[in-house]
Amino acid sequence: MIKEFRLPDLGEGLTESEILSWKVAVGDTVTLNQVIAEVETAKAVVELPSPFAGVIRELHEQPGSVVAVGNPIVSFEVPDDAALPPAAAAKGPANGAAATEGAAGTVTAVPEEGATEDAVAASAARGQSAVDAVPAPPKREPNLVGYGAVVESSGRPARRPRIFAPAGSSAADPSPVTPGQAGPAAAKPVESTVERPRSTPPVRKLARDLQVDLAQVAGTGPQGLITREDVQAFVHGAPGETGTPAEHRAAEQQSGEQPGKQPVVQGAGEREFRTPIKGVRKYTAAAMVESAFTAPHVTEFLTVDVTPTMELLGRLKASREFGALRLTPLTLAAKAVLIALRRNPSLNSRWDGAAQEIVTYNYVNLGIAAATPRGLTVPNIKDADRLSLAGLAEALAALTDTARAGRTAPAELSGGTLSITNIGVFGIDAGTPILNPGEAAILALGAVRTAPWEYRGEVALRQVITLSLSFDHRLVDGEQGSRFLADVGAILAEPGMALTMV
Asked: How many other C-beta atoms can be found within 10 angstroms of the C-beta atom of residue 63?
């Protein structure tokens, strides 16, 4: 019989996803939980495992297409008595929910047949899923991503070997460029069942854009991880590879490709490059428009002498307890924000228009704006107010590394209560940040600069910073916003003031 697999909701109520690539072609025989596609949501890149064991009969969407949740994406031919294999069920977790690990580091909890909604909710509450768990439908078909991966003795889902689609298939990715060849037409189809090369989702996307076969790229990162620089060096003819840089440039000109740039959209002028609005950019744009035209923004500025904080930062880095941590001005500013929120809780709240209520949080999920290869994201540190300075430093470092690698889970991008954006790393002094929807305030940190400043009745060179606080005037009055900003500034101007605020 023919069974359709419809695009599941990959978490947080997302309504659509983009098909990045197919890992199978029409006619391929696939096994249960074999990765069949890589899709990008507005928040993460996820690998979709097969919900059936059978033969691929039709791929309903092509790479690059944006598909609404619930639309069919692939059809399988499966035996008439196809059902969840007993072996797979026996190996699944004992709590009634199987787990599938995606490329972006997210884990999708999928209920086995007969699992109740309460059991699914309990599984999600225990942190087993970064994506919403969905109860199984009456049929034996999964309505998320599969019945769950086969678990090895280690307890982790088994990784399936990557199968490259043969040339000529309607679902095959463009043939990769090999050094010394003129373009896609010269590349030979590759069929392999070996484990795919180690890389991150942004690097794989770059390789697809440049039509590079990662199996031919030597990784220079930790444990052989392939980096962006490795892909770019491969394209331009790094030492040890066949072909010279001149030959690669000639090949790029013949194929019409320009490395590192988006392809020209058909009909655009020669000097224009058009990038489709989708993924993170589309999500960010919608969120910012919603915020700007829903919440009445007010922005206040405060310039502070942070020389004592910078001196404290130097001492902490030299200490035994903090020396191994990645401490930055952002770390201390985040701690100052958390302390100031205790005295000014109105900035840690949201406006519930439907219920006509103001919801004030007794916890802080601190959002940190991060510029990533996929665009601007704002992952948040859950219960940041409960962390020590060392714990906050570790959480910030992990958040930043994960975001830059493109592995931030959808759950880490939702539920924030207040955010910080560090525009100072770009050399900017001040700005008017836009609130994340559902949050009452966002603080922008400017660059720390050495400037003439009044100090003990004289003019001296001091290290100063400008703080920019935007807040929702429905929730926060000018007095409340000003007091919060003054408290943050007072702590950064004299860290000892924190003792008077706790």
From this structure: 18
From 201, 200, 209, select the one nearest 176 (Cα to Cα). 209
User: Which pair of tokens denotes residue 5?
Assistant: 């697999």
Contact between 58 and 73 (Cβ < 8 Å): no
The pLDDT tens digits along the chain (502 residues) read: 899 999 887 765 567 888 888 999 999 999 998 999 988 776 667 788 999 999 999 999 988 888 888 899 999 999 876 544 443 433 333 333 333 333 333 333 343 334 444 443 444 444 443 334 444 444 433 334 333 333 444 444 444 444 444 444 444 444 444 444 444 444 444 444 445 567 776 677 788 777 788 888 888 876 677 887 888 788 776 433 444 444 444 444 443 444 444 444 444 456 777 777 776 667 677 777 777 778 889 999 999 999 999 999 999 999 999 989 999 999 999 999 999 999 999 999 998 988 889 999 999 999 999 887 777 889 999 999 999 999 999 999 999 888 888 778 778 888 999 999 999 999 999 999 999 888 999 999 999 999 999 999 999 999 999 999 999 999 999 999 999 999 999 999 999 999 998 8
What's the token pair of residue 414?
Answer: 């939702």
Active-site amino acid positions: 473
> How far apart are alpha carbons 288 and 294 in whole angstroms?
10
Encoding tokens for residue 159? 């990784």
Integer Cα distance of 92 and 235 in angstroms? 43
Rg over alpha carbons for the chain, rounded to the nearest Å, is 26
pTM over the 0.70 mark: no
Residue whose pair of structure tokens reads 């959480």 in the numeric block: 395
Angle ∠(71,76,79) on CA atoms, nearest 5: 135
Q: Which of 220, 341, 201, 334 is nearest to 279 (CA)?
A: 201
- Among 77, 87, 12, 86, which Cα is nearest to 46's? 12
Query: Cβ(472)–Cβ(355) under 8 Å?
Result: no
d(CA 463, CA 475): 33
Which residue segments constitute the domains of the chain, with CATH numbers given?
2-125 (2.40.50.100), 184-255 (4.10.320.10), 280-500 (3.30.559.10)
DSSP secondary structure code for residue 175 in this structure:
P
